[in-house]
Amino acid sequence: MTETERPSVLTGHTNVREAEDFDSVYMQGVPPWDIGRSQPAFAELAERGLLAGRVLDAGCGTGEHALMAAALGLEATGFDVAATAIAIANTKARDRGLEARFLQLNALVLSSLGEQFDTILDCGLFHSFRDDDDRPRFVKELRASMPVGGHYYMLCFSDRQAGDWGPRRIRQEEIRDSFAERWTVDSIQPVKIDITIDPHRAEAWLAVITRL
User: Fold this and answer.
1) What's the whole-model pTM score?
2) Which of 110, 107, 118, 177 is closest to 152 using CA atoms?
């Protein structure tokens, strides 16, 4: 696939945080990040028993990680700004006979739910904030939505990824700076994010962060 053939949502030239932009991507077909299963890095967390309590899938898309948590018998919620993605997630839950709640919600007003989540999974949301002012707002919303000792597991595109296609690359230092106050960054490890387009896997960081 050439650069001109790549979906525009992966070029980095469009502000995909807008609900209509995300919706249009889902309405046009299967987005590159919608692989129809859990990301391997998050599936490994589940296998290790690291998902616990009330689980939130932040920027859930069509809900695979919330459904993974639900299949483990955990109370699972997912939210996304795209209404089409949420509708697909609800259909998946019904088809699989799983109990999971899916909400259309902007990540920057997460605390408006007035709920606490022990485990928050984020695959591709953190790196989607193109406005640097939005990142600290999101971190503030996360903290307000977690109890002390809660865990935030985040997968994001890494600056180790070659080329200029795809979403914004994130440096380790950016993660550590964003969570420098009243959080502990337990680890940041290089992993892969699976995608549906060539080269099918992208360089990523898996950050494990604890709320203080």
Assistant:
1) 0.90
2) 118
